[in-house]
Specification:
By secondary structure, this protein is an alpha/beta fold. It has ten helices and 14 strands. Helix 8 links the parallel strand 12 and strand 13. The longest helix is centred in the last third of the chain and has 35 residues.
């Protein structure tokens, strides 16, 4: 068995527009298959198989002919087939259907164990039902300290690991701070793991008098308030990147007490001189750096999203708790993240059950 003979690898290949997997069916059951790929240089045929009780009925030949027809449409003019040396019957078949043996080529194979692909052959590329996305370094480090993962892998944007929460394997991903990293890592997570639910856990800065330190927030709308449009209507530009998060799949049995709010989000800390303006323009109660980018991407990728943020520090029209005091933010962020991680034990079974309920109705 090859290292790539697993569901995750097959899914990666069949998601590729230059690949085709044909199945032969009899009475609704799979009795044969053939995988064909085109890399732009030549076609390749892999994993031709027919169940023993259905052999000698022309199924293998028909599978080959069907893939050849697709290759013809793709402009393939040369195709390679790999045959194991201890299977002479397979070599005879391929010669009989027009693929003679090439005695001038010897195959060399390298099996790569690159660190950034560690776990690929097991679960790293399999579909994951829940991905927890964490942005800032000060939020991610407490997650690692609390969950103590046995192994850390790396994505292009940060570390990730799998940890069981209430017997559910949950993938935790460090997406990076700021909206550029947040948008890119969100799209990466959705493309790679195809989660049923994406949960964004993190901190936010609250406006004193409108929210309290430690309050847990369920975000219903995100507003990218740091857009400065000088050529047209700035309000229209902000509306274009405002996302109403679809929470209609939740019900009144939500297991955690959260305040539902709209969150303003931008690549900047909320400073005293802007507090009155964001209250006036957006009725803001809290702000962060990443939520608007995450919500925007998840909405367009049709992925359910829960953004749960808790208030780590407060700002008013005169001062901010964490301004010029990074250790203060790091200390409060560590407390917040430990509380939010505790909530996952109730949250994850609930969201998975709700997802199944919505699909069944």
């Amino acid at each position: 068995m090859s290292t790539t003979d697993e569901v995750g690898y097959v899914r990666r290949v069949t998601d590729n527009p230059g690949a085709v997997l044909l199945l032969a069916l009899r009475d609704g059951k799979i009795v044969g298959s053939l995988l064909g790929t085109f890399d732009g240089w030549r076609g390749n045929l892999y994993r031709l198989v027919v169940s023993p009780e259905h052999r000698r009925q022309g199924i293998a030949r028909e599978l080959v002919r069907q893939v050849e027809q697709i290759f013809r449409e793709w402009g393939v003019t040369r195709t390679t087939v790999l045959v194991e040396v201890d299977r002479p019957w397979a070599a005879e078949f391929w010669s009989a259907v027009g693929y003679p043996r090439d005695n001038h080529i010897v195959r060399h194979v390298g099996v790569h164990a690159w660190p950034d692909l560690a776990g690929t052959s097991s679960d790293a590329h399999h579909r994951t039902r829940v991905v927890v996305l964490v942005s800032a370094n000060a939020e991610w480090n407490p997650v690692k300290e609390a969950l103590k993962p046995e192994r850390l892998d790396r994505s292009p944007y940060g570390e990730f690991f799998t940890h069981a929460v209430e017997n559910e394997p949950v993938l935790f991903l460090h997406g990076g701070w700021g909206k550029i990293s947040a948008a890119a890592s969100t799209d990466y997570a959705i493309s790679r793991w195809q989660p049923d639910v994406l949960i964004n856990l993190g901190t936010c800065g609250g406006i004193e008098g409108r929210v309290q330190r430690g309050d847990k927030l369920l975000v219903t709308r995100t507003v990218a308030y740091d857009i400065h449009e000088a050529m047209g209507d700035p309000a229209e530009a902000i509306r274009a990147y405002t996302t109403d998060i679809d929470l209609s799949w939740l019900d009144n049995s939500f297991p955690i007490t959260l305040r539902q709010v709209s969150l303003v989000s931008g690549d900047r800390d909320l400073v005293p001189s802007e507090v009155a303006d964001v209250i006036r323009r957006f009725d803001a109660v809290a702000a962060d750096w990443e939520s608007a980018a995450i919500a925007y991407v998840a909405s367009r990728r049709n992925t359910r999203l829960l953004t749960v943020r808790a208030v780590s520090d407060l700002v008013n029209t005169e001062r901010g708790d964490a301004m010029g005091a990074l250790p203060v933010f790091e200390r409060e962020a560590a407390k917040i993240m430990r509380l939010l991680l505790d909530d996952l034990a109730m949250l994850i079974p609930y969201v998975l059950a709700r997802g199944r309920h919505v699909l069944s109705t």
